[in-house]
Specification:
Elements: H1 2-25, H2 27-49, H3 59-77, H4 87-103, H5 108-127, H6 129-133, E1 134-137, E2 142-145, H7 148-171, E3 175-177, E4 181-185, H8 186-206, H9 212-240, H10 255-259, H11 262-276
Antiparallel strand pairs: 1-2, 3-4
Length: 278
């Protein structure tokens, strides 16, 4: 038990340090990290769905698709390329569709469905981190790298999980979504939200490029959609009758287990930032 706790603690600290360090270091480390995360998360997802009878997703093609989509978004957001940068990705999607005509696999419809879902569910959310990271600065009349917004997404998610766990363990009585995740409670979810709102005051003080109300709004968006993201992956694992999505993170499971909340929180946060700046 002590060894498991120690392994889990060390893995968690390294995980947080790598995420925070790469986001804050520079745009290149930020991009490299999440290209790798996107690629290996999609591969992990494909390994899981390929255990379903009749499913045979091309892991190489879908993983390359996720990596390329991330790089294309990054290039487009920094203004290095125009929308033509997405053409190779469109061709890759067409290949996924057309290839099933010739491969004579058992269930091409399932292969199409899971291949496309890997791009929508995993590749697109990670790619949209670039929307948060690269913002136009009217003072400099150019696009600049702002690591605070993508980092804030993960800070809110981590604190929401921690707050929900602590409050839920002490006071949790009313189940939030018992059919999918029996341990989650309304009390825990509210506790996690309160912690995130409290941290919004700190972020608003040190990073006033958004007002306090805007920071609070971002926190609430991430709490709500992060919870839905967590529940979505729980439903996915329940359907497959598995406990963890993988073993790449000792004591924590797989990459999907660690990034489940962010897969809905990132697109929601990007939409929120666009709406408040519209």
């Amino acid at each position: 038990m002590k060894n498991n706790f120690l392994i889990r603690a060390i893995t968690g600290l390294l995980f947080v340090a790598i995420i925070v360090g790469c986001i804050l270091w520079n745009p290149l480390s930020f991009g490299c990290l999440f290209v790798l995360i996107s690629t290996f998360t999609i591969r992990e997802f494909d390994n899981l769905v390929n255990t379903i009878d009749g499913v045979d997703v091309n892991k190489t093609i879908t993983s390359l698709g996720g990596a390329y989509l991330y790089m294309a978004f990054m290039a487009f957001c920094i203004g290095a390329y125009d929308s033509k940068v997405f053409i190779p990705y469109v061709l890759l999607i067409l290949y996924i569709l057309i290839s099933e005509l010739y491969l004579k696999k058992k269930n091409p419809i399932n292969n199409w469905a899971y291949s496309m879902f890997s791009q929508l569910y995993i590749a697109l959310p990670f790619a949209m981190l670039n929307v948060l990271a690269f913002q136009y600065d009217p003072m400099l009349d150019e696009v600049g790298y702002n690591p605070i917004l993508p980092l804030a997404v993960f800070i809110f998610l981590w604190l929401n999980d921690s707050g929900a766990y602590c409050v839920g363990s002490l006071f949790g009585k009313r189940r939030l979504f018992e059919r999918i995740s029996p341990k989650k409670s309304w009390e825990g979810s509210i506790g996690g939200a309160v912690v995130c709102i409290a941290i919004s005051f700190v972020l608003a003080h040190f990073f006033p490029f958004m007002t306090l109300l805007q920071w609070i709004g971002l926190a609430l968006v991430i709490v709500v959609f992060g919870t839905w993201g967590d529940l979505t992956e729980s439903l996915f694992k329940r359907q497959l009758q598995i406990k963890d999505s993988g073993t790449i993170l000792p004591g924590h499971g797989g990459l999907l287990d660690r990034f489940d909340s962010s897969l809905m929180a990132i697109p929601a946060a990007a939409a929120y930032i666009y709406l408040i700046n519209f």
